[in-house]
């Protein structure tokens, strides 16, 4: 297995590469995994979301255990929505509560598939080859908005706010997802602990079937869906999502007024 990260240097430039023994071995990019020869200390770099997806394809009802609890039939094709690029943040970045929304905000710990090659109408073999690696996702949702309008379920709006797609802390290639579990903790209390081998569609099947509907580009992410234990996040609460072999994704929900004050202070400091 190899670990990959995307980070910001002190001059504001963004670098991507393979992490080994506290150093980043820089590569041209996720879509061009060619080493530049540069080796940088991680201590001089600020971690970002490990990729910058043009889109995040988020699955629903992709685990047998959750389908059984919800009394929903197992789908024949992946059921998904699209989260926008602006919703993506990295580990340790705050989730921002929308200023106009005071309702329930929900965490969903998930495995994320990171696409490494342009993919359209892919066979299972082509789909497997198109997977660069795996990351962790917290698919945040403003749950109260989904059914706010009785005539139109608002899945994309509820899941598409800025900061509502937490990714990280790294991408791991060669990861054996079949033997892993997703463990989600809310302020240190375990809320989710489920096996990834309970997925309805394997990662290769997801990539293949979704590529029949839309083109997947390098850096795009497929959030594999969640299982039992989803719950709400209170203002100031911290969600940790851990997948052994990838790491832990950590994000805290900031209240809208706290976030506005923080942003104002930052703008003032920057002149």
From TrEMBL:
InterPro entries: Fumarylacetoacetase-like_C (IPR011234), Fumarylacetoacetase_C_sf (IPR036663). Transmembrane segments: none annotated. Residues 55-253 form the Fumarylacetoacetase-like C-terminal domain. Keywords: Isomerase, Metal-binding. GO terms for molecular function: acetylpyruvate hydrolase activity; isomerase activity; metal ion binding. This is 2-hydroxyhepta-2,4-diene-1,7-dioate isomerase. It comes from Paraburkholderia acidisoli.
